[in-house]
TrEMBL record:
Cofactors that this protein relies on: Mg(2+)
CDD domains in the cross-refs: Trans_IPPS_HT
Entry protein name: Polyprenyl synthetase family protein
Keyword Transferase: yes
Organism of this sequence: Candidatus Rhodoblastus alkanivorans
Amino acid sequence: MSVQIANQDFAARLVAVAEATESTLDALLQPHRLKGERTRPERLLEAMRYGALGGGKRLRPFLLVETAGLFGAQGDGVLRAACALEMVHCYSLIHDDLPAMDDDDLRRGRPTVHKAFDEATAILAGDGLLTFAFDVIADAPTHPDAGVRADLTLMLARAAGLGGMVGGQALDLEAEASKAPHTREFVALMQSMKTGALLLFAVEAGARIGGADAKQTAALSRYGSALGAAFQVADDVLDAEGDEQALGKRAGKDADRNKATLVAALGLEEARRRRDALAEEAIQALADGGFGASAAILAEAARFTVARKS
């Protein structure tokens, strides 16, 4: 398969998965109650929908769906798992934007949740999305095998929690207050947790749903780790040189706030080289896993990660 054809297929699949994710999220975030729920407060649900719907590339759901698809796994259950992951991601964005954290007014080209509603509602909307994500991933419609659902639940908890995304955010905040230079090793660790953990989960969850063997799982884990690292370095570069209108959020804030980034640790040119090398590392992992042409769209996802403008 040529790179041009793979690029066209990737673009079409990215849009298709984003639309399917949006539709499934919309169906999940409806006013009707589930068994055990008392009611769904209208304003809270509106804020959750505002934070989760209507924007974003949905790269994490895409990676989960496409990785599961390598093994023939598809359908509503796969989309539910992908939406659970996306709800965790959206909760993290809502909380990251709060004044106590990154203090951003703009997300995806529109006011952040705490600006569109208020800070208390934004906190609760994030809480609601996080807990509902585990409701969705643990529920029977997501996968017929309770063992698979238990594995996915544990994997997501560890990717999102103390040793993953939340821990990475804590390290990020600590780094802002530090007067010492941020080392490459510290930045890589922090970014592997704050950003990389959920991207890696997307790939490993797709492999678990699809029933990948040990060799395939190991190769896909290498792919997910490299892609996650490349994604964050690309974000660092975009913040340093990107256009605010294209980004849909404030540019240049990393340097202003002493953020721990590879641009700060290595310089812009070396960060670009590191970004591109990580993308090639991800593509090589797919080749080493023996996936061949069936993984062309996942390879293109790595190229997209470093070429994107937002």
